[in-house]
Each structure stands twice: as C-alpha cells, then as structure tokens.
Fold:
Amino acid sequence: MRVAAFSVKPYDRDSLAAASAGLPLEWSWFTPHLTHETARLAEGAAAVNCFVNDRLDAPALEALSGLGVRLVTLRCAGFNHVDLDAAARLSLPVVRVPEYSPHAVAEHTIGLVLTLDRRLHKAYNRVRDGNFSLEGLLGFDLHGRTVGVVGTGRIGRRVAEICLGFGCRVLAHDPTPETDLMARGVAYVPLDELLAGSDIITLHCPLTSGTRHMIDARALALVRRGVMLINTSRGGLVDTRAVIAALKSGTIGHLGLDVYEEEANLFFDDRSDSVIDDDVFTRLLTFPNVVITAHQAFFTRNALDAIAAQTIRNLMHLHRGEPLEAVVRA
Structure:
C-alpha cells in the first residue's frame, strides 16, 4: 500500500521507515507542505501522512479524494488544520496520534518556566562572553508560587504533577476536573479566577472556536502584574498583539512560547539566511523577557517512536480492512 508523506524531515523519515520495516507499506516522501496545489503528489497513494502545518482545507481534501486517497493520517495530536466537515462530506476518514509522550511536552513546559525564571538563556550567553556578573539574573523560587494550568488532559495533568513536586500551589481549569488531581491538592476554578490568582499561567488545551484567543486583552486585564505566561499547546490560543501590548506595559513579566499563531510560514525550516517578514513575530523577539522555541516541545526520541508506531497502526488497519483507531470527527 502506497503512502504519501508530506512536510517530511529526516527524523520523520527515519522513524516511520524503522517502524514500518517488513510491512507492506511503500512510502513516497515529500518535503513540501500538503496544500491544494501539492495534493497531486499523492496520486496513486491509498493514504497520506501529514503534520501540523499541512493545509487540509476543503480544496485539498477534495483533491485527495479525487485522486483515490482513502485515509488521512496525522502524525500529531492537534487537528485544527483539518476541515473535518469537508472530510465527513467526502467520506474521507482522518486519524491522529492522540498520545505520544505527554512527558515530552510537559517537561519542555517546565524547561521554559525555569529558563525564564532564572534567566538561563542570558546567563549562558554572558558566560560565553566572559561576563560573570549576576546583575539582572535575579529569579524567584517556584516553591510556594501559584501555577494556573489551563487544560488538564494528558499533558496538563503532568505539568500539574510536576508543579506539585516543586511545592507550588496549583489552580486548574478544565470542563472535566480530574478527581485524583483534586485529591492531591489541585483546585479547579473558573478561568477568570485562575487568571487573577496565578503567578504562572500555562496553556494545555486544544484550539477550537471556543478557545481561540482565550488569552486576549480582556483576559490579560485580569492577571497579576508581572505574570509568567507559557504556551506549548497551540499558537491560536493567544492573541499575539494583545500579548505584545501586555509585555510593553509590564503586565506580562515573562513569556515562553513553543507555538505561534502564524507559525506555518516560519517553523520547522532554516530561515537564518532570509528576512523574516512577519512584523508581529519579530517584535516578540525584541523583548529580553521572551523565550521562543520552534514547536519542539514534542521532539524527543520517545515521542517520535510513539508517533511512528501509532501512525503505522493506523495505516495497517486500513490495509487490512480493520476498524480505524483515533478517528477525528467534526
């Protein structure tokens, strides 16, 4: 069975090829993103394999369906880049990887917190330049601080557990509270109460019409001055222009991002020799209290292996005519 994989990097190819060794899967590897224009590359494939910045809108899905593609597999958990209504209309199933390594993203989240708190990025550069001054590097103990975790699914609950281990007070907001977290001292509260009562706010929820720009000017008017905001979930959860205004006013004291709402035109490629024409993103880079990583929170060997394994299971279910797992529906 032929599979057309898009947005492929060497590490994707290595992990998928290793996981499918000896199985009746024939891969066609493509570095471009999947769009309506590039969908023709999938001709002859029974399935396509895509990532977060592939554009699976109605025209792209219609093109795939017209080529005889029978399955869209996502090597990611998020699916906000897929027109699920169009997929349903075309009877084109979409499957994802709902869980790969919640530890990877949770640990990266805490890495951003510690980097911002202790100014590790600044300290690293200073020492390399022979500057051993501690001026401007003063941090704070996490112990005793209040951390607000928005979304306590697989990743958010792990962040909450790590923060409890640091001795933090943890507030949480989620439509479905976890009773075991509550038993360990996590307090579930309305979102506005979490925003107003947290020293650190970290986002771990999907991007939907209801969560898009949940951190906007109104939300930022509620937070404690100097709050730390972390987003390792989806860029669209944050209104970037509102965040920039809050950075300028001092409302946000520290900002850690692994995602950005317009990242499709930036992340996962080397653009060091080109001019970045996204003025909002370049404005973020001017702040000394902002740390941005390029959607790498998931990027551990454990996670890549798990993504590949689930992807191959999804493809083999199609090949064998078996019921599909992790189907995404509108």
Observations:
- The domain at 102-292 is CATH 3.40.50.720 (Rossmann fold).
- The longest helix spans residues 301-320.
